[in-house]
From TrEMBL:
Keywords: Acyltransferase, Cell inner membrane, Cell membrane, Membrane, Transferase. It is found in: Cell inner membrane. InterPro entries: LipA_acyltrans. This is KDO2-lipid IV(A) lauroyltransferase. It comes from Bartonella choladocola. It is an enzyme of class 2 (transferase).
Amino acid sequence: MQKLRLKLILFRLRAKLKDWWDWSWAHFVSGLMALVSHLPAKAGIGFFAWFARTVGPLLPRHKIALENLHKAYPDKDPQWIRKTALEMWENMGRLFAEYVFLDKIFDFNPNDEKPGLVEVDGIDIFVRLRDEKKPHIFFTAHTGNFELLPICAATFDLNVTALFRPPNNPYIAKRVLKARRTAMGHLVPSKAGAAWALAGKLAEGEDVGMLVDQKFRRGIKGTFFGRPVRTNPLLIKLARQYDCDVYPARSIRLPGGRYRLELYERFDLPKDNDGNIDEVKAAQKLNDIVETWVREYPGQWMWFHKRWDD
């Protein structure tokens, strides 16, 4: 009985310490962002890029990133691995800071041919989808500043409800969600009830978007960089149920603090001999597309994410 009480006390103590740490870290980061918000956008984003590049390698997640990079690129030397990991941290720092400056960095106007910080490939597709007046599903990955994609869709009068995974720190998650609501329309946290929420939007004829490069314990088995993974079947199930067209989209960071947003033509889900969607082949095709994107810009993907099964 005494051992059980001791375990219970230790469990509660660890929970309180974790909560204290989450609260302290969230307030430190929020205070830092509040200070940075008074800087010009370029300087503020640059500061967070430096901060993440400096602090990131000191965090436990850095080890995960290095291990993932070694396994994904066994032919690359350690110097390339370390360089790519640092680029990833810099990308993460920029992404975090850009929440503060979204209204300043997103300067794309489909009616203005003057070049700005954001350029868009696939404008004709956006226009066509807007005029179709039926629901669509967009998918992307954690590359570049993927947060700009729903904002871009909104400039073409496409109201996209995005599925997202909140940060593990609940205090940071609350602040991030508040920042995203200001410019990104509807958001659905990836937890119980998320599938019903997205299904409801599609049933109403609205568009939804989701990230497809996250681990899902009960997902469809496949491979990513030749390693076993499990992929969330939600996109496939929703596309089948509502007979929706599916479109890939991604964000790419360009030199000089610029961005390119790309929308591709319809993604055809593989079918079996009976004409039904083949879930295994469809999930693998999603993985293959994301892998192609990551291989093109490896420093712009979240390598510290535990994507693989092994």
